[in-house]
Every structure is written in structure tokens, then in C-alpha cells.
């Protein structure tokens, strides 16, 4: 520590680039400080440091991190605890630009595997970003010394030393994450695609806040005949609604909770923190939300199960367009989801193309099938489950034609769920459908696609250029990738990880031989073996702001690359 103080005293009042002299390793009483990257300007990306506390001093019991779910739960808790202690002990911005700012990637409502904190048998390491302070572009050495030798030690003491943290609070994250993983395994054993625990709070505060709604909220209660019991390893017995594999409709009047339930199911692919209200809303991890996406590019996707016989003989077995319509984009989104792998599709009629979802009897009578290239989803959803083993949960308020193909019909009435499958089937029997099935004998083929090097170049001006801009945009070479319609992408750190994964993929696995599925799988295998740190853009730099995305969003980002070329 004395060495660091001397360096800061020596460069006090010099030009900002003098901060480069403090990069290195410093030993404090309870931890080792690594200053890995020093920014060159007070307005530039913040400097990056690591604080490593040996387990012999941190003294976290092995029971808190001995398996992967518990380790992820503890790492998530510690990142939030460190963020809280930064808020308590740091005085915030002092000087020009980002001067004095200190932060860690602590996440939102989801528990995600992150690079912000690393826990293992040897040490606990926190990756923190900070803005080294300056007045104008002049080093403020005394302020930097206060940040690094006074504020930081207090933050470490109150967040990474077990004896100084609320152990029960930490344990609640650890045990919840283990329970959530248990439910996922139990769902698979029982052939369920989703579990919604009784007492869950599904509505959110607003369209821009993912926190639970307070006040007059109806807690979720399962219909009696859909209730399943589970004995969780930590929480013990819980009851909730189990949605089985197959085709499920969610129906009901407007503003009665249909889309709220689907949104909770959609986000249930991730685990949530204690107090979120959706802690025990668990959906199979590969579920994909499907919607129309006017204007997206599509590159050689086999959409023939849904669209064929286009005018002028346009081939839909390897269909490409720079400006997809609503129905074409929705068809492509489904086929791409099947290509990367999914066992559950989630759809809401409000975000779907009407002509993709249904073609009623009157329209069939007016426009002959040979003149209509679109086969509606209602005629394919049953085949999708029968032939591919892919289930569907669908919000539908405007067409009873889906009653004929549904295995389960759930009605939301003033945010209360009812199983009305028998009533729906009776309605279908008493009011028989006059439309003709148009789906053919089977669902059809899904085609793997090989990614070509020619369309996967991250260079711009001769240098690699890959970056994430907020939650919904990735810059890849000369292209901007729009992820606005990926509704299950929830954290900017995931977007940064996707950008890094695509760059990593370009260097290692895009070789004119790997299919997209194979290339994505290979990246995730490498991460499973070596950790998210392999995505660090420079050797020796440890990024603290990456969070694990899913294969489905990584593949979706590649599919939206406007230079993508495949065979």
C-alpha cells in the first residue's frame, strides 16, 4: 500500500496520463489489489481493478459455494453487497468526467452467472471499475489515494469478509439458487415446461421497471387440477401450477392478466433474486419468445413449413430477404429457434402477425389455398409437438380456432387462473369449426446452415471492431446488429458477452465448416470449461462486466447480422 501512496503523491498535479504509472500489484493487509487497466482520459472508459481476498481471510464456509448453483448465488449476492457498500463508503464523482466514480456490475432482478465476482477454494475476487480523479486533465493524487487506500478497504471489509456481512441474507441467495435449479431438474423429470409457485407476484411496477408491483396485487394461485407439489432442498414444500408439455392456450378478457402471466413465464428462463415475486416462476431454460419482426434480414432459412408456393417461383427452402414482413419474420424466427434448439415456444397474439396465426373459414372460401402461400400457425402447432417434441404456450384472445389443437386452456379472470380445458373443448364440439386444415401431413424439415467466413468479418478500417451499445445494439465490423425484438435479453452485460462471443466465434469456429449450432455450442463448451474470462479482449485483462447469455440469444444476434452469409 505504501508503494501505491508514494506513486500517487509523486504524480499529483501532473498530466492525466501519469496515472499509467500506478498499473501493477499492491499488497494490502486483507487483500491484494491488481490495477489491471488505467484509463488515458477522465472521460474514457473507467479504469479496471481487481481485489483478491484469500479464503483464509474471507472465511466463507464451503457450504456457501461447494456446488455450481450455490457458487453463482453467492457471487451474485456479493456483487450486490459490494455495490451497496460502494454506495455507503464512496463519495461518488469528484472532478472531471467520471472522476471519483466507483462501481461493480451488480445486475438487476435476475441471478446470472457474471464475471464481477469470482469465488473459489483459494480466494474471492471482485472486479471493480473506477474513474481515476482529475481536475480538468490534471491528476488529483490525494483524491485517488483516498479512493484506493481509505474507501476501498472499507468496502472490502464490509462485503468480502464473512464475519462482517449478514450471513442469513447471503444464505438466502445461495439456497434460493439451489432450489431454483432443483425445480428445473424436477420439471424435466415430470415432463413440465413451466412451474408458477402459489403466492408469486407477477405484475411489474411499470413498463420501464422490472421490480414487483406494490399495493393491490393479486398473488398467483394455481387452479386445483393443475397444482403440483415439490419438496425443495432448502425451502421445503411448495405448491404451484405445473404446465405440462404440449399446446397450452392462455385466454381471457383484455387487462385480466394473460400477457402478464406469459411475460412472467418468458422471464422464467432466468432465476430471480429474493423479493422479486417471481423467485419460483421457473420455465425450461431453452424456451424462446416468438414474435413478428417487420424489416429484419433473413439469410437462407427454410421457412417452407409455414410459407411456400410464393409467386414467381421464389424458393422458400433457403429463403433470404433484407426486409421481412411480419408473417415471414415470424416464420423465420420459429425456424431459427428450432435450428439452435428449443423445447418450448412462447407467443402472444398482440405481437404476432394476424395472417401468420390464423386463416378462418370465410377467408379460406374467398382465397383458395393454392393462392395463399402462408400456412397459419394454428395448422402447425400440433405437428410441431407431435413431430419435433416442441411445446407451445400461446396467449390468444381473438380466435377460438385454437381450441381444437390445444391440450390445455387456462383462463385469466381478474388475475386469477382457471383450468377451462373441458369448457373450451365443449364449445368447440357445440360450435364446430368450418375451416379446413392446411398443415399437410407433417411439420416439415429444419435445415442446419453453415456460416461462411465471407460474411463474418469483424474488421472495420483494417482493425477488429466489436462492441455493445446498451442492451439492444451490437457493433460488428461495419454492421450494426439490432436486438430490439429479443424480448428475453435482459441485461446489458449479456449483450456485451454476446458481442465478445461473436468475436471469439469469428476467430475460432467460423471456418466454412461449422454450422451455426455447432459454432455456438463450441463457444459455450469453452466457457463451461474455462469460464467467461476467456472472452476478455486482451490477455491478462479481466472483464468485470459480462453476464452469461443463452445460446438462443447468441444465435439470434448472429441471424440478425446483415452481412451474414451461409450455405
TrEMBL record:
<dbReference type="Pfam" id="PF09818">
    <property type="entry name" value="ABC_ATPase"/>
</dbReference>
<dbReference type="Pfam" id="PF21117">
    <property type="entry name" value="MRB1590_C"/>
</dbReference>
<protein>
    <submittedName>
        <fullName>ABC transporter, ATPase, predicted</fullName>
    </submittedName>
</protein>
<dbReference type="InterPro" id="IPR049069">
    <property type="entry name" value="MRB1590-like_C"/>
</dbReference>
<dbReference type="InterPro" id="IPR046834">
    <property type="entry name" value="ABC_ATPase_C"/>
</dbReference>
<feature type="domain" description="ATPase of the ABC class C-terminal">
    <location>
        <begin position="170"/>
        <end position="447"/>
    </location>
</feature>
<feature type="domain" description="ATPase of the ABC class N-terminal">
    <location>
        <begin position="1"/>
        <end position="160"/>
    </location>
</feature>
<dbReference type="InterPro" id="IPR019195">
    <property type="entry name" value="ABC_ATPase_put"/>
</dbReference>
<dbReference type="Pfam" id="PF20446">
    <property type="entry name" value="ABC_N"/>
</dbReference>
<dbReference type="InterPro" id="IPR027417">
    <property type="entry name" value="P-loop_NTPase"/>
</dbReference>
<dbReference type="InterPro" id="IPR046833">
    <property type="entry name" value="ABC_N"/>
</dbReference>
<feature type="domain" description="MRB1590-like C-terminal">
    <location>
        <begin position="465"/>
        <end position="567"/>
    </location>
</feature>
Amino acid at each position: 500500500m505504501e508503494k501505491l501512496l508514494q506513486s500517487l503523491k509523486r504524480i499529483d498535479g501532473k498530466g492525466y496520463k501519469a496515472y499509467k504509472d500506478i498499473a501493477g500489484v499492491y499488497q494490502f493487509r486483507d487483500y491484494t489489489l491488481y490495477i489491471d487497466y488505467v484509463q488515458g482520459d477522465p472521460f474514457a472508459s473507467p479504469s479496471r481493478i481487481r481485489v483478491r481476498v484469500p479464503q483464509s481471510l474471507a472465511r466463507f464456509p464451503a457450504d456457501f459455494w461447494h456446488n455450481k448453483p450455490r457458487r453463482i448465488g453467492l457471487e451474485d449476492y456479493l456483487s450486490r453487497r459490494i455495490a451497496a457498500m460502494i454506495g455507503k463508503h464512496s463519495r461518488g464523482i469528484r472532478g472531471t468526467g467520471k472522476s471519483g466514480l466507483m462501481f461493480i456490475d451488480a445486475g438487476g432482478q435476475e441471478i446470472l452467472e457474471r464475471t464481477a465476482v469470482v469465488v473459489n477454494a483459494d480466494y474471492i475476487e471482485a472486479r471493480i471499475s473506477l474513474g481515476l480523479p482529475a481536475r480538468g486533465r490534471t491528476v488529483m493524487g490525494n483524491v485517488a489515494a483516498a479512493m484506493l487506500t481509505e474507501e476501498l478497504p472499507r468496502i472490502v471489509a464490509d462485503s468480502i469478509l464473512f464475519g462482517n456481512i449478514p450471513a442469513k441474507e447471503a444464505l438466502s441467495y445461495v439456497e434460493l439458487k439451489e432450489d431454483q435449479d432443483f425445480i428445473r431438474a424436477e420439471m424435466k423429470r415430470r415432463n413440465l415446461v413451466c412451474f408458477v409457485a402459489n403466492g408469486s407476484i407477477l405484475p411489474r411496477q411499470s413498463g420501464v421497471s422490472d421490480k414487483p408491483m406494490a399495493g393491490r396485487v393479486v398473488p398467483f394461485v394455481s387452479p386445483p387440477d393443475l397444482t403440483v407439489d415439490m419438496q425443495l432442498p432448502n425451502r421445503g414444500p411448495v405448491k404451484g401450477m405445473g404446465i405440462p408439455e404440449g399446446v397450452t392456450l392462455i385466454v381471457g378478457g383484455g387487462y385480466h392478466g394473460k400477457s402478464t402471466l406469459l411475460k412472467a413465464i418468458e422471464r422464467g428462463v432466468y432465476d430471480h433474486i429474493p423479493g422479486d415475486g417471481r423467485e419460483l416462476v421457473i420455465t425450461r431454460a431453452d424456451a424462446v419468445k416468438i414474435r413478428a419482426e417487420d424489416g429484419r434480414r433473413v439469410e437462407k432459412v427454410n421457412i417452407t413449413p409455414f410459407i411456400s408456393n410464393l409467386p414467381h417461383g421464389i424458393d422458400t427452402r433457403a429463403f433470404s430477404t433484407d426486409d421481412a414482413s411480419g408473417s415471414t419474420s415470424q416464420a423465420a424466427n420459429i425456424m431459427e429457434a428450432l435450428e439452435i434448439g428449443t423445447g418450448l415456444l412462447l407467443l402472444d397474439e398482440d405481437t404476432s402477425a394476424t395472417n401468420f396465426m390464423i386463416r378462418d373459414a370465410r377467408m379460406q372460401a374467398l382465397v383458395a389455398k393454392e393462392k395463399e402461400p402462408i400456412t397459419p400457425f394454428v395448422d402447425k402447432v400440433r405437428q410441431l409437438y407431435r413431430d419435433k417434441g416442441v411445446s407451445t404456450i400461446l396467449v390468444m384472445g381473438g380466435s377460438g380456432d385454437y381450441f381444437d389443437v390445444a391440450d390445455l386452456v387456462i383462463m385469466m379472470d381478474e388475475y386469477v387462473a382457471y383450468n377451462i380445458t373441458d369448457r373450451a373443448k365443449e364449445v368447440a364440439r357445440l360450435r364446430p369449426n368450418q375451416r379446413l386444415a392446411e398443415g399437410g401431413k407433417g411439420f416439415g424439415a429444419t435445415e442446419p446452415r453453415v456460416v461462411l467466413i465471407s460474411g463474418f468479418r469483424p474488421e472495420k478500417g483494417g482493425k477488429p471492431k466489436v462492441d455493445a451499445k446498451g442492451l439492444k445494439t451490437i457493433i460488428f465490423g461495419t454492421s450494426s446488429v439490432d436486438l430490439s425484438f429479443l424480448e428475453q435479453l435482459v441485461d446489458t452485460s449479456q449483450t456485451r458477452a454476446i458481442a465478445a462471443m461473436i468475436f471469439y466465434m469469428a476467430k475460432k469456429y467460423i471456418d466454412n465448416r461449422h454450422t451455426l449450432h455447432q459454432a455456438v455450442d463450441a463457444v459455450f463448451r469453452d466457457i463451461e470449461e474455462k469460464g467467461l474470462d476467456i472472452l476478455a479482449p486482451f490477455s491478462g485483462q479481466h472483464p468485470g462486466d459480462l453476464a452469461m447469455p443463452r445460446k438462443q440469444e447468441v444465435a439470434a444476434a448472429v441471424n440478425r447480422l446483415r452481412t451474414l452469409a451461409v450455405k
